[in-house]
Design brief:
3 domains, two-stranded antiparallel sheet, 9 helices, about 55% helix, elongated
């Protein structure tokens, strides 16, 4: 049932019941009925504000993750154009899978379709308001980027070292913590990383007898890479995620992907 008929029904039945009581009890009942009708109208008029507040609260619970995904899934192409296709898909996915179920459970099901753009705008504003570490701090050179990621893992409590350029079998970093071995491939790209990197690190994890595998990049990942990562148990991370990465015993190819920290 939509919100408007619901409000109309409340007003109608309050008037009918209050009018009947007013005929029996007189002015006090009529006065109480008028107050009840006013309260219903105020509640109805305040509903859009409550809806926006609810959506904003949900988005703020995931603000840092949204901000990271916004950075990861946006890049500048060789022609200088800002490409945000990946972020736009991610933003819509978040609204559909995270926001909609909660607002529907809170009685705003009728707001979902007509207020879609408003929800998207709120998510965009929340993600844009988060101040993230400067992305420019990541070295542009591939070898330096691997060392940079290894240092981030070390600071997070891992014993991490970059592998040799030859004979690494697709692993750029091998790290251990709490008896869990992590195998990482690093990609310093100007565009989303494809599924070849996922295939390579999954194979490298088996070669190095790893428990976790991850591709780390300053850029985002293609839909094909995300689909393959979900099937093979490979985590797809931004280098900022390394600061909070915890051990998970998840061998690629034997279950769901290890998720980045929220």
């Amino acid at each position: 049932m939509s919100g408007q008929p619901h409000i109309v029904g409340r007003l109608f039945w309050t008037s009918v019941i209050g009018g009947g009581l007013g005929l029996w009890y007189g002015r006090p009942a009529f006065a109480l009925t008028a107050l009840a009708l006013a309260a219903i109208l105020i509640w109805a008029l305040d509903r859009p504000r409550r809806f926006r507040k609810r959506v904003r609260g949900i988005a703020r619970r995931h603000a840092r993750t949204l901000a990271l995904r916004r950075r990861q899934e946006s890049f500048v192409d060789p022609y200088g154009n800002l490409i945000e296709d990946g972020w736009l898909r991610e933003r819509d996915y978040f609204v559909e899978r995270t926001i909609l179920p909660e607002i529907e459970a809170r009685g705003f099901a009728d707001y979902a379709e007509p207020h879609w753009d408003a929800m998207v705008a709120i998510v965009e504003a929340v993600a844009a308001a988060v101040i993230l570490p400067d992305a420019a701090e990541a070295p542009e050179d591939g070898i330096a980027y691997e060392q940079f990621c290894a240092a981030r893992l070390t600071a997070a409590g891992w014993r991490a070292h970059a592998t040799q350029a030859s004979g690494d079998q697709g692993a750029d970093i091998v790290a251990e913590r709490d008896r869990v071995r992590l195998v990482v491939q690093c990609k310093r790209y100007a565009k989303p990383v494809g599924n070849a990197a996922v295939q390579e690190v999954a194979a490298a994890c088996r070669y190095w007898s790893g428990d976790m595998a991850a591709v780390v990049s300053n850029a985002g990942f293609t839909p094909a890479a995300r689909k393959l990562a979900a099937a093979t148990g490979v985590a797809l991370l931004h280098h900022d995620d390394l600061d909070d990465l915890h051990p998970m015993r998840q061998v690629p190819g034997r279950g769901r992907a290890a998720a980045p920290p929220a």
